[in-house]
Amino acid sequence: MSDAPTLDYERRFRRSGARLLAGIDEVGRGALAGPVSVGIAVVDLQRQKLLADVRDSKLLKVADRERLVPVVRDWSVASAVGHASANEIDELGIIGALRLAGNRAWCAVLAAGVRPEVVLLDGSHNWLSPDLQPSLFDEAPADPGCDAPVHTLVKADMQCLSVAAASILAKVERDRMMSELHIEYPGYGWDENKGYGTAAHKEALRAAGPTPYHRVSWQLL
C-alpha cells in the first residue's frame, strides 16, 4: 500500500488563520455514462487527528472503500457528495458540470451549519469557484456557491488526507449510483465499468446505441 496521506499540507493554512478546510475531489470526469460526482470532507486544522487506512480511492479495494465511508463521515466535521447528470454535462460541458456538482456538495455542507474557510482541490485547475451564470443551477440555492479561497494541488488525493477522504465518499456514492443504473440498462456492464469506456461498454454502444444516461455530446465511439 502507498504511503498514508497526512494533514501536513493542510495544516500550512493555519498560518493564514484558517481553521476549517474543505478537501475536495471528483470522480467520473472521464466516463462515457453517468454523473460526475464531487466529494467534500471538512477538517478542523486545530483538532483533527490522522485517520488510518484512508488512501486515494483508486488505490483501495471496493470492500475497503465501502468500509471506510462511515469512518470518514464520523471523522469529518462535515461531508457531502454532489452530482451533475449526463444531461447537465451535455448542457454545460464537463467543467460547468464539475462546478455544478461541487457547489451542490458545498451547499449541503453549508446546510449542515459548517462554513469552510479554505478549500484544497485536487488537480491544477480551479473548476469549483462559481461562474456567475445562474443557469449553472437547476434549482435556486440558498448560497451562490463556494466563496472560500480555493487552492489546487496536483495529486492532492495521494498526499492530503482531507482530499483522499473526499475521494472515497465520491467514488463509493457514484459507484452505487452506477450499479443501480445497471439494473435499468444491464447490457452496458455498468456494475463493472461504472460508465467508463471499456471495450465491452463500447461494443454495447455499437449494438444498442446510447441510453439517457450517456453523455451524448461526447465522442462515445
Describe this structure in words.
With 221 residues, this protein is α/β, with parallel strands linked by helices. The protein has one domain (10-175): Nucleotidyltransferase, domain 5. It is built from 6 helices and 5 strands, in the order ββαβαββαααα. The protein has helices at 62-75, 86-111, 156-159, 161-184, 190-193, 199-208, and strands at residues 20-27, 36-44, 78-84, 118-122, 150-153. The protein has a 5-stranded mixed β-sheet. A hairpin with an 8-residue loop joins β1 and β2. α1 packs across α4 (161-184). The longest helix has 26 residues, at 86-111. It is globular. The N and C termini lie far apart (35 Å).
Topology:
Layout lengths: L19 E8 L8 E9 L17 H14 L2 E7 L1 H26 L6 E5 L27 E4 L2 H4 L1 H24 L5 H4 L5 H10 L13
Parallel strand pairs: 1-4, 4-5
Antiparallel strand pairs: 1-2, 2-3
Helix pairs in contact: 1-4
Can you describe this structure in just a few lines?
By secondary structure, this protein is α/β, with parallel strands linked by helices.
Number of domains: 1
CATH domain fold name: Nucleotidyltransferase, domain 5
- Beta content: 5-15%
Structural class: alpha/beta
Work out the number of β strands: 5
Order of helices and strands: EEHEHEEHHHH
Number of helices: 6
Tell me about the largest β-sheet: 5 strands, mixed
| pLDDT < 50 runs, ≥5 residues | 132-143
Rounded Rg: 17 Å
Helix content: 25-40%
User: What's the arrangement of strands in the largest beta sheet?
Assistant: 3-2-1-4-5
EC number: 3.1.26.4
Keywords: Cytoplasm, Endonuclease, Hydrolase, Manganese, Metal-binding, Nuclease
Subcellular location: Cytoplasm
Main location: cytoplasm
